[in-house]
């Protein structure tokens, strides 16, 4: 029955007349997913089994924080060392809607109280402190609570003398918390400096996207800096840069392969090899 496995994924057709009338098409939702890179139609279940990587072009879909923990850590070893903190509205910020209302909406949608997952875990039986950012929570933006949890991850790493790993997936500082969010850049950078003084390994893993204030602080301060393929990494976005300098940027600008070529990264690693590579460097760097 090998011939059956080689059949291409179907191109689903939607009845536009039915769709225009407001009726649901016969195609079940959530079963298939289109790859944004090669446009191939893939089974959602197959993508999940493949750690959210397209089997044809190897495009890396985004992982949430829990999926990332399952990918990197030994099974059932993650233990959160912080209470369930959640962001407040210290500035009573209001744009199109109150910041407090935005938080309530994202709490209900994402099911998480903050844009980061932090705790202790093991990789190949090696203990480490780890923080993983959650992009689905307001674009993985770093507010007061997120910055505090990253700093605390480093603090626990310092106290226990175990390596620290931070996985970034973020749009930068959270503008709704103003200068308070920008202060987290200094806080996390200071704690990172303490790890360096104590000669405790700190590994930073950059995923798509890693931008803004996080890229300008803890994300780019690792002893070793890894990135996933084709991840967007930089401070300001390409469109903003082009408008500022009034020049066309080179192809692949701010993608992980481009940054590796320019010396900003140490390795670009396929998601399937990331756990093994991380374990190797933890053994290499740890005393």
Secondary structure layout:
Elements: H1 2-5, H2 16-20, E1 32-34, E2 41-43, H3 44-49, H4 65-72, E3 79-80, H5 99-110, E4 116-123, E5 126-133, H6 144-160, E6 164-170, H7 178-197, E7 202-210, H8 212-215, E8 224-227, H9 238-245, H10 256-261, E9 267-268, H11 271-285
Parallel strand pairs: 5-6, 6-7, 7-8, 8-9
Antiparallel strand pairs: 1-2, 3-4, 4-5
Helix pairs in contact: 6-7
Keywords:
287 residues, alpha/beta, 7-stranded mixed β-sheet, 11 helices
Please tell me about this protein's structure:
There is one protein chain. This protein is 37% helix and 16% strand. It has a seven-stranded mixed beta sheet with strand order 3-4-5-6-7-8-9, sandwiched between helices. It has a two-stranded antiparallel ribbon with strand order 1-2. α8 links the parallel β7 and β8. It is globular and about 50 Å long. α6 packs parallel to α7 (178-197). With 287 residues, it is α/β, with parallel strands linked by helices. The chain has eleven helices and nine strands. It has helices at residues 2-5, 16-20, 44-49, 65-72, 99-110, 144-160, 178-197, 212-215, 238-245, 256-261, 271-285; strands at residues 32-34, 41-43, 79-80, 116-123, 126-133, 164-170, 202-210, 224-227, 267-268. It starts with a helix and ends with a helix.
């Amino acid at each position: 029955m090998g011939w059956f496995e080689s059949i291409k994924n179907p191109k689903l057709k939607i009845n536009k007349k039915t769709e225009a009338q407001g009726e649901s098409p016969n195609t079940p939702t959530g079963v298939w997913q289109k790859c944004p890179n090669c446009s191939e139609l893939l089974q959602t279940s197959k993508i999940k089994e493949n750690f959210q990587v397209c089997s044809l072009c190897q495009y890396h879909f985004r992982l949430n924080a829990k999926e990332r923990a399952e990918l990197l850590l030994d099974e059932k070893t993650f233990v959160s060392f912080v209470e369930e903190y959640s962001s407040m509205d210290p500035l009573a910020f209001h744009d199109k809607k109150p910041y407090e209302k935005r938080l309530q909406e994202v709490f209900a949608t994402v099911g998480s109280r903050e844009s980061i997952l932090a705790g202790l875990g093991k990789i190949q039986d090696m203990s480490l402190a780890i923080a993983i950012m959650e992009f689905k929570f307001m674009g993985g933006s770093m507010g007061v609570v997120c910055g505090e949890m990253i700093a605390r991850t480093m603090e626990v790493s310092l106290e226990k003398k175990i390596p620290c790993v931070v996985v970034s997936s973020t749009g930068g500082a959270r503008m709704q918390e103003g200068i308070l969010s920008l202060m987290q850049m200094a806080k996390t950078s200071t704690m990172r400096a303490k790890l360096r003084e104590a000669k405790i390994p700190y590994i930073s893993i950059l995923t798509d996207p890693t931008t803004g204030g996080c890229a300008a602080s803890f994300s780019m301060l690792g002893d070793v800096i890894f990135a996933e393929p084709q991840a967007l990494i930089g401070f300001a976005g390409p469109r903003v840069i082009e408008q500022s300098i009034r020049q066309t940027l080179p192809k692949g600008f701010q993608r992980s392969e481009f940054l590796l070529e320019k010396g900003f990264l140490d390795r670009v690693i396929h998601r399937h090899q990331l756990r093994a590579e991380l374990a190797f460097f933890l053994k290499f760097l740890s005393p």
